[in-house]
What we know:
TIM Barrel; 8-stranded parallel β-barrel; about 20% strand; binds ligand PBG
Amino acid sequence: MFPYDRHRRLRKNESIRSLIRESHLTPHDFVLPIFVAEGKNFKEEISSMPGIYRQSLDNTIKEVKEIWNLGIKAVNVYVKVDSSLKDNTGKEAWNPNGLMQQTIRAIKDAVPEMIVMPDVALDPYSIYGHDGIVENGEILNDPTVEALVKMGISQAEAGADILAPSDMMDGRIGALREGLEENGFHNVGIISYAAKYASSFYGPFRDALNSAPVDSVNIPKDKKTYQMDYHNAQEALREVEADIMEGADIVMVKPGMAYLDIVKLVKDNYNIPVSVFQVSGEYAMIKAASANGWLDHDKVMLESLTAFKRAGADMIFTYFSKEAAKLLG
Ligand code: PBG
């Protein structure tokens, strides 16, 4: 008998294909990263991320309402901090009236059910553009963790639902969990950037926040002493395991498209919800190629997002959230 098996039977039309489909993408899979800036009625497109803006709080709130109506249930908040507020300690990060804290309160006030996930990391607040305190050319671990705990608690006080530490210091999940418990924030969760790689795909994000490591003597030019080496996969399991033991509620793999093997590895080895971050450079690549007419924007966008679901991601941080939610409608 030839052919032995006819796989094409189950592909012969859209009806049968939809019946046997294994992964599904819906607007509530998405978390939209947002960039908030000082000012009023301010909105500025990030040149390397067409369609994504730094915007003042009033405009941010309009957007949050709009995406809620599209079915998106969570936002990941970043703030663009004025250079005059940056230093080596990151202390603006726990200013109770800082831009981040104001933003969290305003979002929870406008759309109480929106899950607010503030970024926990010092880089937007650091004069050196690092996710930690720098001394003698080194990013200090334990003093940075102490700063992150102050930052996380102030975000919880402002009403954050789930803290999103993206810094990759050792021990910060346990320290944040302990800090939250001691202060009565038992229901504030932690989504840990557990397997975050030192990646060149973050370029446009660092433009957005003006947060790239500065080029100066005795300041490391990259983040390789804390973010993971992209040659490694087993190490991601050790990172994830540590963060689960320390109290993470959800773990993350970042970046996304070049790291689908890691998403699958984590999903297959642990029973904790897994998130993936399709980062700024991935977004920029698809935007640039489609602007040139080299790729079909919408089709490539949905294919890339579905691949995350197929690999095992439970939720996807993506700058395409709004456009994809509109298409999936
Ligand atoms: C830094 C941080 C980065 C991103 C999120 N938080 C960049 C970095 O590690 O330098 C990248 C997001 C993106 O590229 O979309 N704490």
